[in-house]
Design brief:
Strand content: 15-25%
CATH architecture of the largest domain: 2-Layer Sandwich
Helix content: 25-40%
Shape: globular
CATH class of the largest domain: Alpha Beta
Number of strands: 15
CATH topology of the largest domain: Dihydrodipicolinate Reductase, domain 2
Organism: Neobacillus bataviensis
Structural class: alpha/beta
Distance between the termini: 51 Å
Order of helices and strands: EHEHEHEHEHEHEHHEEEEEEEHHE
InterPro entries: Gfo/Idh/MocA-like_OxRdtase_N, Gfo/Idh/MocA_Oxidoreductase, GFO_IDH_MocA-like_dom, NAD(P)-bd_dom_sf
Pfam families: GFO_IDH_MocA, GFO_IDH_MocA_C3
GO molecular function, one term: nucleotide binding
Protein name: Putative dehydrogenase
Number of domains: 2
Strand order of the largest sheet: 14-13-12-11-7-10-9-8-15
Number of helices: 10
Bound molecules: nicotinamide-adenine-dinucleotide
């Protein structure tokens, strides 16, 4: 292992940047927090002071021109992910970009092209792939314990979980969509990643917007903007047919009249099934002609791949990325087709999903 210190820069000094990226990159001995940038310079200054980051910028181009950086985190609103990631790659900097990789598959694909040209790495911030449960499930499924997988369910439903009514999250131009592009990219991604990201054949579904008028459904701690735009869906429901014959149904909502929030991935196969419901992992099968449920006792001390250390290892020693940019294109292609189906109220076929990236744009 190379012992070079990587010079790190952060772009977009908001809540996720601090909670996730800075708190993790600061713990890595081979990373030097070198620079931070936010158009709102006060956000950048506050974090620079707290985390002892020497250089502060209000413009990411200036930061990338002036600093010799090895990697950056891109933690801005979604519509800037492609523009900033591509610029960083052109400057020869590796990119850890938050989810979604971009606001549509075309932009995501441009990031992949810039990555290939630069010879650098791009990882999407898909933290749910790195949990103890997800790592165990991936191994279990890859080992064939489920038999033939025929059905997958994925979802994340909240009672009051709008990430700030009237903020950039509810503005289609800034976010690219609503709950589907916010929570869907986490749990639909996890489900499809676990089963090996098969090619989709068709998708259908619906989107609803029922909570745009109220601030009472904001997520705890998230301030809304009463005058802000809300032109995206707060609920997304869909069904995907995969080319291998398996099916996927999913449900995502920021707000709904349910008793409790819930996250779920359930994968059903001919020999067994698995469920990860609100973080609780169970295996379902048969033993001695009897149905059994197994609760694996995962070793809490197991050395898991940490998303941040993993990315530095990928940069320094060529370790294979767990969440490469190409996976972001796959997901955004599915989401683009889903939105088209939902707006047109009819199923949409993936003509040739690898080559046919759809650009579809509409809003409430
Ligand atoms: N992986 C996760 O679990 C997770 C969780 C939350 C958010 N996210 C993602 O992280 C990203 C940021 O979300 P957030 O909740 O931190 O939002 P936020 O609004 O708290 O922060 C965004 C920051 O970007 C700054 N910004 C805007 N334009 C900029 C520009 N041109 N240059 C530099 N900075 C700019 C804003 O001033 C703000 O400080 C989003 O893409 C979101 O989807 C991921």
């Amino acid at each position: 292992m190379n012992d070079k210190k990587l010079r790190y820069g952060l772009i977009g000094a908001g809540s996720n940047a601090e909670r996730k990226h800075l708190n993790n990159y600061m713990t890595l001995p081979n990373v030097e927090l070198a620079a931070i940038c936010d158009v709102n310079i006060e956000n950048a200054q506050r974090l620079a002071q707290k985390y002892n980051i020497p250089k502060v910028y209000s413009n990411y181009e200036d930061m990338l021109k002036n600093e010799e950086l090895d990697l950056v985190s891109v933690c801005t609103p979604n519509f800037l992910h492609a523009e900033i990631s591509i610029y960083a790659l052109e400057k020869g900097v590796n990119v850890h970009c938050e989810k979604p990789l971009a606001i549509n598959a075309l932009e995501a694909q441009k990031i992949v092209e810039a990555k290939i040209k630069s010879g650098k790495q791009v990882m999407v911030g898909l933290n749910n792939r790195f949990t103890n449960e997800a790592v165990y499930l991936k191994k279990y499924i890859d080992a064939g314990y489920l038999g033939d997988i025929y059905q997958v369910k994925a979802g994340w439903i909240r009672r009051s979980g709008i990430p700030g009514r009237g903020t950039w999250f509810t503005n289609k131009d800034c976010a690219g969509g609503g709950v589907m592009i916010d929570l869907g990219v986490h749990y639909l991604d996890l489900a499809l990643y676990l089963i090996g990201m098969p090619e989709p054949s068709y998708v259908t579904g619906a989107i609803h917007q029922n909570f745009s008028h109220t601030t009472t459904r904001n997520r705890n701690g998230y301030k809304g903007n009463p005058n802000g735009i809300f032109n995206v869906e707060d609920t997304a429901i869909g069904f995907i047919g995969l080319q291998n014959g398996a099916t996927v149904n999913f449900e995502f909502s920021w707000a709904s009249n349910i008793e409790q929030d819930k996250t779920f991935v359930e994968i059903l196969g001919t020999k067994g099934g698995v469920s990860l419901i609100n973080g609780e992992l169970k295996l379902h099968s048969e033993l001695l002609d009897t149905c059994v449920d197994i609760s694996p006792i995962l070793n809490p001390n197991i050395k898991l791949k940490n998303e941040f250390e993993h990315f530095t290892n990928c940069i320094l020693s060529g370790e294979e990325l767990i969440a490469p940019a190409e996976h972001g294109v796959y997901m955004m292609n599915i989401i683009d087709h889903f939105y088209k189906a939902a707006y047109k109220q009819k199923p949409v076929i993936f003509e040739n999903s690898k080559d046919n990236i759809l650009l579809f744009s509409s809003s409430f």
